[in-house]
Design a protein that fits this description.
18% strand, five-stranded antiparallel sheet, alpha+beta, 136 residues, 29% helix, HIT family, subunit A, binds guanosine-5'-monophosphate, binds zinc ion, single chain
Length: 136
Amino acid sequence: MTDCIFCKIIKGEVPSSKIYEDDNVYAFLDISPVNPGHTLVVPKQHCTDLYEMTNDEINAVFTTAKRIAKAVVRGVQADGVNIGMNNGKAAGQIVFHAHIHVIPRFMNDGYHHWHGKPYEGGQQAEVAKRIVTNLK
Ligand code: 5GP
Ligand code: ZN
């Protein structure tokens, strides 16, 4: 894809702090990190999101994300790590080239988890049923 920023980074047309590269995967520092060491792991082949990734790509990208997570934690001496993927605008996706966020976390770094909200009566079973019937 010619106008995709991550494709340009993979091709070396836009500079990046490369962390790792192989035939299928490219990993580099996020330009605007949640914490220093925040790394993005992407398939080299352009695809929009998780649904467009082949299972082989998912395997390669997530396996690499695990390896990078360990290196990030050791490298910046983090206390924990979040692995995340935004799929779709409503989920906060800004760059539409599939990518995994590897985010180092520190005790008392000021970030909080999402606020959960309880199901209303009967809703939980209904939601579970709707999801199960949509499994393919
Ligand atoms: P999203 O919200 O799509 O999951 O996250 C996209 C991420 O890509 C953001 O965290 C953003 O900081 C990062 N990003 C966007 N443009 C660039 C860029 O040109 N270089 C790098 N290294 N990261 C970028
Ligand atoms: Zn792309």
